[in-house]
Amino acid sequence: MGQPPTVSQRNVRKAGSVNLIVGASGGLGRRLAEQLAQQKQNLLLVSSDARDLCALATDLKIRFEVQAEILEANLSTREGVDQFLDDLKAHSQQLNAAFFPLGYSLTADQMDLTAQQIDAIFSVNLISTIKTVQVLMAVSKNPTLTLAFFGSIAQSRGRNGNIVYASAKRGLTSFFESLKHRSFQKGQVRPYLFQIGYMESQQTLGKKLLFPVSDPNGVAATVLTKIKTKPPGEFYVPGFWRLFCSLLRALPWSVYSRLKF
Question: What CATH number corresponds to the domain at position 78?
Answer without folding.
Answer: 3.40.50.720
